[in-house]
Amino acid sequence: MSVVKHISDDIIVMYLGQMIEKCNAKSIFKDTIHPYSQALLSAIPIPNVHEKRERIVLKGELASPIDPKPCCRFAQRCPYAQEKCFQEEPVLREILPEHVVACHYAEQFVK
């Protein structure tokens, strides 16, 4: 991901074959919204031994990529999942200008 920001204009983050976040390359690193994108970025190594970053470790089981349920595919691993996440699939919505996210509660994660 750290290399991708230098060679891409836009970045799409996918989870089990579904787009969950799309925005310009610079925005994904400073305004990450989706919890999966946040976890993905927390795993990028930092080349400075004095700088610490808290890594987000995802727990839970992966949803079936072959026969997914009609709900949020990330719900089983999301630390913020609520009942609605297990009942219906989120749609992509523009949360910030030119920044779309598929999460029922995306507005809560905007910094």
Strand order of the largest sheet: 1-2-4-3
Class per helix and strand makeup: alpha+beta
Low-confidence stretches: none
Output the helix-strand order. Answer: HEEHHEE
Shape: globular
* Main beta sheet: 4 strands, antiparallel
| Rg value | 14 Å
Oligomeric assembly: single chain
Number of helices: 3
Estimated share of beta-strand residues: 15-25%
* Fraction of residues in helix: 10-25%
Number of DSSP strands? 4
Describe it for me?
By secondary structure, the chain is α+β, with helices and mostly antiparallel strands. The chain has one domain (4-109). It has three helices and four strands, in the order H-E-E-H-H-E-E. Strands 1-2-4-3 form a four-stranded antiparallel β-sheet. The mean pLDDT is 90.
For this entry, give a set of tags.
111 residues; alpha+beta; four-stranded antiparallel sheet; 3 helices; 4 strands; 16% helix; globular
Please sum up the structure shown:
With 111 residues, the chain is an alpha+beta fold. It has helices at residues 4-7, 25-30, 35-42; strands at 10-15, 18-24, 92-96, 99-102.
Which secondary structure elements does this structure contain, and how are they paired or packed?
Blueprint: H1 4-7, E1 10-15, E2 18-24, H2 25-30, H3 35-42, E3 92-96, E4 99-102
Antiparallel strand pairs: 1-2, 2-4, 3-4
